[in-house]
Each structure stands twice: as structure tokens, then as C-alpha cells.
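We modelled each protein-ligand pair independently. The example shown here corresponds to the NAI entry; the chain sequence is given first, followed by the ligand as SMILES.
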Amino acid sequence: MKVCILGAGTMGAGIAQVFAVNGHEVVLRDIKDEFVERGMGHIDSGLARLVKKEKMTADEKAAIMSRITGTVDLALIKDCDLVVEAAVERMDLKKKIFAELDEACDAKTILASNTSSLSITEIASATKRPDKVIGMHFFNPAPVMKLVEIIKGIATSEETFNTVKSITAEIGKDGVAVEEAPGFVVNRILVPMINEAVGILADGVASAEDIDLAMKLGANHPIGPLALGDLIGLDVCYLIMEVLYDEFGDPKYRPHPYLRKMVRGNKLGRKTGEGFFKY
Ligand SMILES: CC(=O)CC(=O)SCCNC(=O)CCNC(=O)[C@H](O)C(C)(C)COP(=O)(O)OP(=O)(O)OC[C@H]1O[C@@H](n2cnc3c(N)ncnc32)[C@H](O)[C@@H]1OP(=O)(O)O
Ligand SMILES: NC(=O)C1=CN([C@@H]2O[C@H](COP(=O)(O)OP(=O)(O)OC[C@H]3O[C@@H](n4cnc5c(N)ncnc54)[C@H](O)[C@@H]3O)[C@@H](O)[C@H]2O)C=CC1
């Protein structure tokens, strides 16, 4: 199968790796060469770690890398069977991208979005093939996390859903069917928890280290909520809270002003070298 991933950031690079590891030909497309190179670099270093741990041979790594073409050229995606869009979490941008994809791709191509929270129905409305538009929501880090939420929009066909469910299983992930709703299942629970941790920090209840230690030892989470915010990207967390707040109109989803301040200060977490912790 030929798969195109749009966006070579935190998620796009990881998703490209997953498909290439499972033998698929991948086109990884971003808007600037430097972003493509950064994404390819992340995949290379992720696989290098596996070689070092003797979980993969250097030859296997080379074969996986050879299946991924990094590019800024949208023309390369024409004959893809599946596109997974992993660009920025903004509806205006996603609609623009899906309108472009609709023009650029063959009629057979399924157009999936890795959106964390947005309406698949609205994204699909930018295309003439809403039956072939679907949510395919991977989790960070994509090569490690087993879950994919599969989200149908109002017009998504059963055929598209079943194809994406089979692909999900084939790449070694567990898919769950989710009805369209802001934040789907996981993020409606997880991201407000991160937002609450930001509030606890802003109130001076405990230090960032102690908030995270408390949740690791007291709730058995693998990493604390502030470190998780840094892993996801605080800009992404903020955008998800905004979607929850706008869509539900419920003040319990209000993004914390301190989260907004961190984003304004470009302290976005791992991807900028500093968030609630330094990297
Ligand atoms: C915002 C959204 O829309 C949705 C979201 O994604 S929400 C975020 C969801 N993610 C989470 O909740 C993650 C929570 N954190 C964790 O589970 C863990 O901290 C973690 C899995 C990320 C890292 O675990 P860790 O034990 O500290 O790290 P590490 O030992 O380096 O890696 C764990 C395993 O993953 C593998 N791994 C790590 N990075 C990898 C990569 N890029 N490629 C392949 N494998 C990788 C390692 O080889 C290791 O495998 P083994 O255990 O077999 O040796
Ligand atoms: N960060 C996370 O933990 C998770 C994020 N997501 C979702 O995945 C999507 C991407 O998030 P991240 O990877 O974190 O963002 P990111 O900011 O790390 O990367 C986004 C990339 O998309 C690129 N891009 C922008 N416009 C583009 C276009 N027209 N064509 C191709 N590429 C374009 C940007 O240049 C950037 O490299 C968002 O919708 C986000 O909500 C989903 C699961 C987890």
C-alpha cells in the first residue's frame, strides 16, 4: 500500500515510521524542506535506538528508511491509497488541506485526519468525497502507543470505516470505533487533566516536579501530567482545550490562562526544548 503522511512534526514522523516498519511505501510531506529533514531525522534516530538495543538490525533500519520519501511536493501523493493528515490542529488549515487533497488525489484515496479533537464532518465538508473522509487518531509516541481511535463523520461510509479498521490492525494497532464528539474519548479525559495540573501549578499548590511525582506514584501514570503536556506539545493541548470549550460551551473546559501564557512564550514542551521542564 502507498500511504502519504501530511506534516512531518511530532505525530507525522511517528506515523510514517509505523507504516514503513510494516512494509508500506510512505510519502512524508511537509511545507518546508527543513521540516521534512527534521521529521526524517526523528525517524532515523528512533530506529537507531532500536538498532542499539538490538531490537532491529542495521539492514532492517536501512530498508525501513528506504521506504520513506520525504518531500515538499504535493504531486507525489496522487496515487496514494491512504492519506493521513497530521498538520496543525486548526479547522481552517485542515479544511484548506483537505480541499487540496481532494483535488490532488485519485478518486480511490481515503483521506484520514489525525486530528485530536476536531469535527470529521466539518473537515469532510471541504471535499467532494465525504464518504472517504475519516478520523484516524494515533497517540504519542505513535511507534509505541497501541491505540488508534477511528472516527466516522456523518457521511463516512461503512466501507471506508472497515478498510481503515483493517489497516489499523495490519499495522499492529488496536482500533476503537468512536462516534464524532469533541476530543473523542481519550483527549476529553486526558487534556482537561493536564489543564487542571497547570491550574494546580499556577495556584502554587505544589511544584511541577511534585505534581508529576504525585500523579506517577498516586495514580500509577507512566509520566506526570505536566511532562505529558510537554510531550504532546503545549500548543496542541491549548488548541484541544479551545475546541472542547467552544464546542461544549461549558466553562469546565476553559483553557487555563497559564497554559496560554506558556504558548505565547513559545515554551511548547519537548519540541522547543522547554515547557514545564527543560529538555
Ligand atoms: C494529544 C493527542 O491527541 C493524543 C495523545 O497522544 S495523548 C498522549 C498519549 N501518550 C501517553 O500518555 C504517553 C505516556 N507515557 C508513556 O507511556 C511512556 O513515558 C513512554 C512510552 C512514552 C516512554 O516510556 P519509557 O519507558 O520512559 O521510555 P523508553 O524506555 O525510552 O521507551 C519505551 C519503549 O518504547 C520504545 N520506543 C521509544 N521510542 C520509540 C520510537 N521512536 N520508535 C520505536 N520504539 C520506540 C523503546 O524501544 C522501548 O521499548 P522496550 O520497552 O521494548 O525497550
Ligand atoms: N502532539 C500529539 O501528542 C498529538 C497530536 N495529534 C494531532 O496531530 C496533528 C499534528 O500534531 P503535531 O505533530 O503535534 O504538530 P507539530 O506542530 O509537531 O507538526 C505539525 C507539522 O505540520 C506541518 N504542516 C503545516 N501545514 C501543512 C500542510 N499544508 N501540509 C503538510 N504539512 C503541514 C508543519 O510544518 C509541522 O511540521 C494535530 O492535528 C494534533 O492535534 C494527534 C495525536 C497526538
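The chain has a mean pLDDT of 97.
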